[in-house]
């Protein structure tokens, strides 16, 4: 029932979203007009990037998914998380859809190796104090997390995601934020749309900043 309603909402809203273009940064994902999204403060804006602070965000995360494809790993993780919010959890509780879905990437050692991905669902405020546990899933809590963010449109593709991450890194080069990039941290991709929306799609590439270790 919930799933059907969700599909209907997504199908109708794609008509509205179609009018909205995507470029650069500072776009409010239209999806977040309809569903709860992780809140953040923009603490700085630059050419092609913005710096955000997420305060006490809670995520429900899959275990490591080995794949050569971010798109396929995200699909695998999303299906597991979709079951979770439909009630496949220890309390049999249904949970409202939220945004974004986050795919964190640990790059592999070589070009022909698999990467590891963790796919996460943003837990709505209502459930953050006590998210239902579920087999194969764990909670990820962000106390205060600083991210450099670049937005891009269209469908996330394995062929272009590396370029988006490179573009974000390049835009940070020479800025005050460059020294705060933690080289041990891989990047993440945040997706705000259902697969049924064909236009007005908003995606983001996220790089974690270690602002405490940097001289600002
Ligand atoms: C992703 O999954 C599709 C469908 O199962 C498959 O055809 C495709 O080869 C996969 N892509 C990669 C890069 O593994």
UniProtKB/TrEMBL annotation:
Keyword tags: Signal
Leader peptide range in chain numbering: 1-19
Domain of life: Eukaryota
SUPFAM superfamilies assigned: Probable bacterial effector-binding domain
Pfam families xref list: SOUL (PF04832)
Keyword Aminoacyl-tRNA synthetase: no
Family: Belongs to the HEBP family.
The protein, known as: Heme-binding protein 2-like
Species for this entry: Dioscorea cayennensis subsp. rotundata
């Amino acid at each position: 029932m919930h799933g059907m309603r969700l599909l209907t909402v997504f199908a109708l809203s794609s008509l509205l979203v179609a009018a909205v273009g995507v470029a650069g940064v500072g776009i409010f994902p239209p999806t977040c007009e309809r569903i709860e999204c992780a809140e953040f403060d923009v603490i700085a804006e630059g050419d092609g990037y913005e710096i955000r602070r997420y305060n006490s965000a809670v995520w429900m995360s899959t275990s490591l998914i080995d794949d050569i494809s971010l798109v396929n790993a995200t699909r695998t993780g999303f299906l597991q998380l979709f079951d979770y919010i439909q009630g496949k959890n220890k309390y049999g509780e249904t949970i409202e859809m939220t945004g974004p879905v986050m795919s964190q990437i640990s790059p592999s050692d070589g070009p022909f190796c698999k990467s590891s991905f963790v796919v996460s669902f943003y837990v709505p405020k209502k459930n953050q104090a006590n998210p239902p546990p579920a087999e194969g899933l764990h909670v990820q809590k962000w106390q205060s997390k600083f991210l450099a963010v670049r937005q891009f449109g269209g469908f996330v593709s394995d062929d272009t995601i590396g370029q988006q991450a490179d573009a974000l890194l390049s835009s940070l080069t020479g800025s005050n934020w460059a020294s705060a990039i933690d080289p041990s941290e891989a990047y993440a991709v945040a997706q705000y749309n259902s697969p049924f929306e064909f236009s007005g799609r908003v995606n983001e590439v996220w790089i974690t900043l270690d602002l405490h270790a940097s001289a600002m």
